[in-house]
Write a structure and sequence with these properties.
The structure is a single chain. The protein is α/β, with parallel strands linked by helices and 212 residues long. The chain folds into 2 domains: 4-94, Translation factors (Elongation Factor Tu (Ef-tu), domain 3), CATH 2.40.30; 105-210, 3-Layer(aba) Sandwich (Rossmann fold), CATH 3.40.50. Helix content is 24%, strand content 34%. It has helices at 76-80, 114-126, 143-151, 164-173, 186-198; strands at 4-15, 18-24, 36-41, 48-53, 62-68, 87-94, 105-110, 131-136, 155-159, 179-184, 207-210. The strands form 2 sheets. It has a 6-stranded antiparallel β-sheet with strand order 4-3-6-1-2-5.
Length: 212
């Protein structure tokens, strides 16, 4: 199987149909918040690969991937059933969206985009910068980390699905509060880009990862 074999350190539920997969960091793996990896595994001897964006602010000893679990999926249910000690294969990191601890951030997430958004907000706070999280989801994941960010002084805005005007209002409110990092599926990230432009900003300056 291609990629570097890495042990699974831990698997835990972090929301409805959502897990955090913690992997041991292999030698030479130097990733930044915002980047992603290609994960390969072989449930029932069939090799399956998926891209996952990092959801941990650092990769010193372990790194985390947030995985939405589709009960009918071919890989995510298998990952959710792991207990630690198993291995998967990883390639990467990939991607030009990175946070290097140099500025205030506004991290905007739709659904599964919450993983990298929270990681970037945490990394900003660890670097002494301000952070805002705007997150749209009916069943929020990583609520403990969002609460910790709020306690640390971050402005965390959680918005229900379908409340697109509320997302646009939050974007406008925090337009000048930091560099925009946006993660989510196509309709969501395009709507956020439009909201940035409508509020007088420049969406070309935002770092946007479209999950497709």
């Amino acid at each position: 199987m291609e990629g570097t074999e890495v042990p699974v350190a831990d698997v835990r539920e972090v929301g409805a149909d959502t897990i955090a997969l913690e992997l041991e960091t292999p030698d030479g793996f130097d990733a930044l918040p915002g980047q992603f990896v290609l994960l390969r595994a072989a449930p029932e001897d069939e090799v399956i690969s998926r891209h996952y964006t990092l959801s941990s602010p650092s990769v010193e000893e372990t790194f985390e991937l947030t995985v939405g679990v589709d009960p009918d999926g071919t890989l995510s249910p298998w990952l959710a059933d792991l207990e630690g000690g198993e291995t998967v294969h990883v390639e990467g990191p990939f991607g030009t969206i990175t946070y290097e601890g140099e500025e205030d951030v506004v991290a905007v997430a739709g659904g599964p985009g919450v993983g990298p958004a929270v990681a970037i907000a945490e990394a900003a706070h660890e670097a002494g910068h301000d952070a805002v999280v705007i997150y749209q989801d009916d069943d929020p994941a990583h609520e403990d980390r969002l609460e910790a960010l709020t306690d640390a002084g971050a402005d965390v805005v959680v918005i229900d699905d379908g409340e697109d005007e509320a997302v646009a209002e939050a974007v406008a409110t925090h337009l000048e509060d930091g560099r925009y990092y946006v993660f989510g599926f196509s309709d969501f990230v395009h709507a956020v880009a439009d909201a940035i432009d409508d509020a007088g900003g420049d969406s070309d300056e935002a770092l946007i990862e479209n999950f497709g």
